[in-house]
Every structure is written in structure tokens, then in C-alpha cells.
Amino acid sequence: MNVRRSAAVLAAVAVFGSAAAPAAFADGASPSPSTALPSGLYGKSDPKFDGVFRQSYALLAQDTVGVKPAAKAVNWLTGQQCASGGFAAYRADASEPCDSKTQVDSNSTAAAVQALAALGGEDKSLGKTVEKSVAWLKSVQNQDGGWGYNPGLPTDANSTGIVVGALVAAGENPANVKSQDGKSAYDALPKLAMDCGKGDGAFGLADAKSKKLSPNADATAAGVLGSLGKGLVVAPGKKADDSAPKCAKPDTASQAASNGTGYLLDVLGENDGHLMSAMPGAKDQPDLGNTADAVVALAAAGQRGQAEKSAKWLAENSAKWAKESGPAAYAQLIFAAHAAGMDPRDFGGADLVERLGAQGPPAQTASDSSSASASDEKKDEDGGTNIWWIIGVGMVAGIGIGFLYSANRKKQQP
Q1: What 8-state DSSP symbol labels residue 215?
Q2: Closest of 300, 340, 303, 302 to residue 318, by C-alpha
């Protein structure tokens, strides 16, 4: 579900060596002095490692709270689409076009689809962009019905979950999107759910070498959302059902979602409403990003009580993390606040909407929209067309990351 900066970093390290890691993990890493950031980009750091991810999350979060992003911000994202329809996480140079070696992935593509589908409305250009991406996602579906991070990698809960959200956002029924073997995501996800005794109902993350599943909270949040047919934006339920679900054999997607919900409730209950980091070397370190994901998943499952409790913990402890992490973090908090029925404009005293807006170009106003509409009509009269600048995507060879993006950035301490 989270196309984290660290995932792209790990991918880059796999390709270019460990020398790439320090700069990539540096908070607020800036581009080289000779490289100017695009005016439509959210965030102040080089988009090389997380541009599509943070832009997609920022645009979707703004739409969620009724803010219309600047046209150039939307243009920057659409410009990252490759000819295949896919989007890439790692970009050696985000201003250069795709080529045959550009490594597109399911997660970046699915995040972009959710954002652009939300913004599309009657915009035919955005509609075509979304359609092309969905077609690519369908073309790389695994035979078991799920998706891996890159085409050809084994199915995992995180990738499958975020793709399900993209399909739903694009108006597709995930149950009808099937592989050549006749399998859908709802067939694949239960296979990634662990037994009640062994994994307490969690969705598992596969070890890169042994391929054995181990319980993982972020994979579980993604698996729950995917199994319920939900995306990154979840409206709070009108009536909460806070009774702890009983764990049973995950024969169906709905039962796997129920089991995963119980697992999240248990883990959050053990840690005062938040998750702890599973990053190597992390010790007693809260995981704010994955906690935000868990809030959205629990809200989707009808567990509004725990969703609110965890969201309130985030409201009290997330200010430093969000400031250091940038637009994607503010977007995640907006998703969590929205799902928990809290006001993102007064989240622990912080206006998340304002702070996210400050990370990118000013949002459109009513007058901007009117001017743009008039300009488009004039172009039509003159025989002109709307131009979506193709900024393209960079090159990366052989990203071999099988466990994707459950890891967070190093600094998660509030």
C-alpha cells in the first residue's frame, strides 16, 4: 500500500550499490545545485526516489478535502507515464523520457491511478491516462490473480492491495479482473493470509530467501483494504462495530480481511494505539506511516473506535515526523484523519491541509478554473489541443526487490 521512499531507495541500492543509500535516506535531500525542481512538484527534494509516490498521495489528499490542485501539479504527474501505461518509482532523471529500460512498477502506477481517477471527472485526457495505466496493470497480473512489485515478481499483499484500490477508483470490479487462469485478487489475497495460530490472522510478508511468510502489520493493512475492495481514501463509517472479530480459516477474502482486522486490533492494543517500526536496527521506534495505514484499514473494516484512538495518537505525535518526511506524510495523515472522522484542518492543532498545500504550487481557485475553461474553449475554436507535457521517467535496470515497501524512512520518531 505504501510506496515508500525507502522502497525506491532499496531498489536503487540493488542496482547502483550502497553508495546511493545515504543521499536517498537523507531527510529533505536536495537536488544538485545545477538542477532546478519542477514548479509543479510537491516537496523540496529531488524526485528521483519518490516523485510519483509523493505527488500521487499529495494530489489525492487534496482532492479528499475538497481542494483542487494546481494544473501544473497534475501535469507533472501525468507526464511521468511511460508509453506502456506504467509509472516508475525510481527515476535517474525525472525530466528525461522513458526508454526501454525504464523499470515501471505496480505500486507507483496504482498510486497514480487512484489520484488521477479522483481528479479526472469529465477530463478526457486524465481519463485516457487512467485507462492506459489500468490496461498495463491488467497486463502484468500474476496467474494467481495478484500482483508483485515489478512484473514477474511473486504476488504480495501490499502490491495487490494498492492495485485493487486503483481498479476500484477506475470503476473496475476487482472480482472481474482475472488472470488467464481465471483468478482475481480475491483469490490471491487469502493465500497471503496466515493461519490463526501461526500468524494470528495477519497477512504475511515473504522472506526474500526462504519465501516463508511472517506476520507484517503494513502488509496486513494493505491486505485488509484490498480484501474489502477499498482504496487509500476511506470514508468513516456511520456506525462502528468494535467487537473483536473471531479468527477462522481464511478461505475467502472477506474472512482474510476479518482475521487481519483482528491482528491489527491486537498489535495496536499492545502498543498504546500505534505500531512499532520493523526496520532493521530500529529499537522501540514508533512507525507513524504504517499506523496511519492501519487507521484507514480499520475504518474500512468498521472498527471506528480503534481507528479514532490511533488517529488521536497520531495527532499528538506526528508533527515532527510529517515535517521531516514531507508531502506524502501529510497526505497519509489526511487519509487517516478523514477515515477516523476527524478534522484534517485541526489535527492535534495542526492544519494538515494548509501544511500539505505549502509543499507544492498554490491550489486552483474558482477564477483559475474559469480562466482555464475559457482558454480551453478558445483553443478548441482555433483547432488547438490541450498539451500534457511528457516529462517522462528515468532509467533503472533490474530492480530486484521482492519485499517491497513495508519499511519506512529512518526517522519515524515523533
Answers
A1: E
A2: 340
Q: What is the pLDDT of residues 204-230, one digit of tens each?
A: 999 888 889 999 999 999 999 999 999
Q: What is the CB neighbour count within 10 angstroms for residue 131?
A: 16
| Dist CA 1 CA 100 (whole Å) | 26
The SS3 call for residue 304 is helix
331 is a domain residue: yes
Q: Is residue 226 part of a domain?
A: yes
Range of 106's domain?
A: 5-18+42-192+200-235+243-374
Q: What is the Cα–Cα distance from 240 to 159, expressed in whole angstroms?
A: 28
CA dist 210 → 93, 196, 367, 402, 406 (Å): 35, 21, 58, 12, 18
In a domain, 382, yes or no: no
Place of cell 477530463: 123
Q: Is the dihedral of CA 124, 129, 133, 136 positive or negative?
A: positive
Q: Specify burial of residue 317 (Cβ count, 10 A radius: 0-12, 13-18, 19+).
A: middle
Q: Give the model confidence (pLDDT) of 108-142 as tens digits.
A: 999 999 999 999 977 899 999 999 999 999 999 99
Question: Exposure string (b/e) for 259-285, b if CB count within 10 Å is 16 or more?
Answer: bbbbbbbebbeeeebbbbbbbeebeeb
> Cα separations (Å) of 154 from 4, 20, 144, 166, 206?
19, 26, 9, 19, 9
At 40-72, the pLDDT tens digits run: 999 999 999 899 999 999 999 999 999 999 999
pLDDT in tens, 163-198: 999 999 999 999 999 999 999 999 999 999 999 987
Q: Are 155 and 185 a contacting pair, CB within 8 Å? A: no
Query: How many Å apart are CA 309 and CA 399, to the nearest integer?
Result: 38
Q: Which three cell numbers stand for residue 166?
A: 486503483
CATH number at residue 48: 1.50.10.20
Q: CA 145 to CA 179: how far, in whole Å?
A: 6
Q: How many domains does the chain have?
A: 1
The answer as to whether 126 is a domain residue is: yes
Question: Cα–Cα distances in Å, from 369 out to 38, 118, 263, 363, 365?
Answer: 21, 17, 46, 10, 6
Cell 507484517 sits at which residue?
216
